[in-house]
Design brief:
single chain; seven-stranded parallel β-sheet; 15% helix
Length: 235
């Protein structure tokens, strides 16, 4: 598979926004920072992401998936030197009969590294969202911190959500946690909005926008407008 390579040099600070990528290979060298903003509207069914983060460097990823097709996304981030840090924020919307799987994994290869992941999804109609992945703190990676959070709102009876965070810890002096919530649309919220005169469709739209739209504010104006259009069409 051909990868698009992005290398951030020593002591460099970059912000990159990419739309409709397929395969990425990222390297953030020592004392550097990459703010990577990814948005997917395409019909690519298989997406891959690989990254290495160096000494005292940060990789901050924001990934907005608003495609209307099946997706299998595989991501592996290696924290290879002390002080390496990765933050990961993902938001996705599935509708109709789309099947979306996101496998996001981190590997702490040395001590004093940090990986924080937050995944959010809305599943409607007969679609399915799966959040999975492994946060692995290897032997010797003392004082490392890893955290996984996943939350999926299921709008309809035929829709499905699964969150399966996995921690693999081979060292004692670390901080590791995970949380997963999959649940139906809150009926109290719906009742409140509809009691104020909104239709069911309008209430669902407001809840969805409130849940997924915040990630769009991280992107350029053109991407923000397109995300809002896609959400409205899907609802």
């Amino acid at each position: 598979m051909d990868y698009q390579n992005i290398i951030v040099k020593n002591r460099e600070n970059k912000t990159i926004e990419l739309a409709d990528f397929s395969s990425l290979n990222i390297e953030v060298l020592d004392n550097s920072k990459l703010n990577l903003k990814l948005v997917n509207f395409s019909k690519n069914t298989n997406l891959e992401f690989k990254a290495k983060v160096g000494k005292n460097s940060t990789l901050a990823v924001i990934f907005a998936d608003f495609s209307n097709s099946d997706i299998h996304f595989m991501s592996n981030v290696d924290l290879v030197e002390e002080g390496a840090n990765c933050t990961w924020n993902l938001a996705t919307l599935s509708s109709k009969k789309s099947q979306k799987q996101f496998d996001v994994s981190f590997k702490h290869l040395v001590g004093s590294t940090t990986a924080i992941m937050d995944n959010y999804g809305v599943a409607k109609d007969e679609s399915k969202i799966v959040f999975s992945g492994v946060s692995h703190i290897t032997e010797g990676a003392k004082k490392s911190i890893t955290r996984q959070n996943a939350k999926i709102i299921v709008f309809d009876k035929e829709a499905n959500g699964t969150a399966s965070p996995i921690l693999k810890i081979d060292e004692n002096d670390v901080v590791a946690s995970h949380g997963a919530v999959v649940g139906q649309l809150n009926s109290d919220h719906m009742f409140y909005l509809m009691s104020r005169g909104l239709s069911k469709e309008e209430a669902r739209m407001i809840i969805t926008m409130g849940y997924l739209k915040p990630i769009s504010t991280k992107f350029s104006e053109d991407i923000q407008n397109r995300i809002e259009e896609v959400i409205k069409e899907a609802m």
